[in-house]
């Protein structure tokens, strides 16, 4: 199953364009968060993670719609990988069900410690 996740950062932004792109990408369920700030609660993400099963795909329009920071993005992608859920990022052409997509996140994970410690 393809599970879509949309996120807008402020209440005056509108998620419809993301939701339309996720529907066009074949998402059967779409969850939406409206939140700002690094620590804000994300019930849409929580629900998407509850629904996602091994073999499913979590689909976002852009990487910044999934994670609020590089560290958060790495954490979420590792969680998805542990659960056997692939990540698809439409605008950046990332698909972790492919070797190239898995390599992208491996490189990103290798760079993170160097960025956060300097």
Low-confidence stretches: none
Q: What percent of residues are in strands?
A: 15-25%
Q: Name the helix and strand elements from N-terminus to C-terminus, one letter apiece.
A: EHEHEHHEEH
Shape: globular
Class by SSE composition: alpha/beta
Radius of gyration over alpha carbons? Answer: 14 Å
Report the strand count: 5
Number of helical elements:
5
For the largest sheet, list the strands in their spatial order: 2-1-3-4-5
Q: Write the CATH architecture name.
A: 3-Layer(aba) Sandwich
The CATH top-level class label: Alpha Beta
Assembly type: single chain
Looking at CATH, the homologous superfamily is Resolvase, N-terminal catalytic domain
What would you note in describing this structure?
The protein has helices spanning 16-24, 43-51, 63-66, 70-83, 99-116; strands at 2-8, 29-34, 57-60, 86-89, 94-95. It is of the alpha/beta class and 118 residues long. Helix 4 (70-83) packs across helix 5. The chain has a single domain, classed as Resolvase, N-terminal catalytic domain (Rossmann fold), CATH 3.40.50. The protein has a five-stranded mixed sheet with strand order 2-1-3-4-5, sandwiched between helices. The chain contains five helices and five strands. The longest helix has 18 residues, at 99-116.
């Amino acid at each position: 199953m393809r599970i879509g996740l949309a996120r807008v950062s402020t209440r005056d932004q509108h998620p419809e364009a993301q939701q339309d792109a996720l529907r066009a990408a074949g998402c059967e369920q779409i969850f939406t968060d409206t939140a700002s700030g690094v620590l804000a609660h994300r019930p849409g993400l929580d629900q998407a993670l509850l629904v996602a099963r091994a073999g499913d795909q979590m689909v976002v329009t852009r990487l910044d719609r999934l994670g609020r920071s590089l560290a958060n993005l790495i954490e979420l992608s590792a969680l998805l990988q542990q659960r056997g859920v692939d990540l698809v990022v439409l605008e950046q052409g990332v698909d972790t069900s492919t070797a190239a997509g898995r390599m992208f996140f491996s490189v990103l994970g290798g760079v993170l410690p160097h960025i956060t410690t300097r």
